[in-house]
Write a structure and sequence with these properties.
The chain has 109 residues and is of the alpha+beta class. The protein has one domain (4-95). The protein is built from two helices and five strands, in the order ββαβββα. It has a three-stranded antiparallel sheet. Strand 4 (60-64) and strand 5 form a beta hairpin.
Length: 109
């Protein structure tokens, strides 16, 4: 049984990367337990449980940091970045926001 609750997803196809943005039900239960324990101890608890993003078919670079943990750089296709709200939607007045390969000049108003 999966504990994942999908928020947004797109299946990977031959020519297009995919993604899965989801919550984990167990994290939410753990968060509620930690929130109650922190309230008893007078300690601060995290504001909300995390969400998870799985990217399929993208390039990544991972570096281990001397201070602990890692630095991860992910090459995210612009269509996925727009779909996840990381970039604004296309704007006909901005040439840089035109879809790649559209071949259409930016209309002037």
């Amino acid at each position: 049984m999966s504990t994942k609750v999908s928020i947004k997803w797109r299946r990977r196809t031959e020519g297009q990367a995919g993604f899965h943005l989801y919550d984990d039900v167990l994290d939410e239960l753990l968060f509620e337990g930690n929130e109650a324990a922190a309230a008893e101890d007078g300690a601060a608890a995290p504001a909300e449980p995390p969400v998870y993003l799985r990217l399929d078919g993208v390039a990544v670079e991972v570096q281990t940091l001397a201070t602990g943990g890692a630095s991860v750089t992910v090459t995210i296709p612009r269509d996925i970045a727009r779909e996840l709200g990381l970039l604004p939607p296309y704007d006909a007045d901005l040439p840089a926001s035109q879809p790649p390969g559209s071949g259409e000049p930016t209309p002037k108003r």
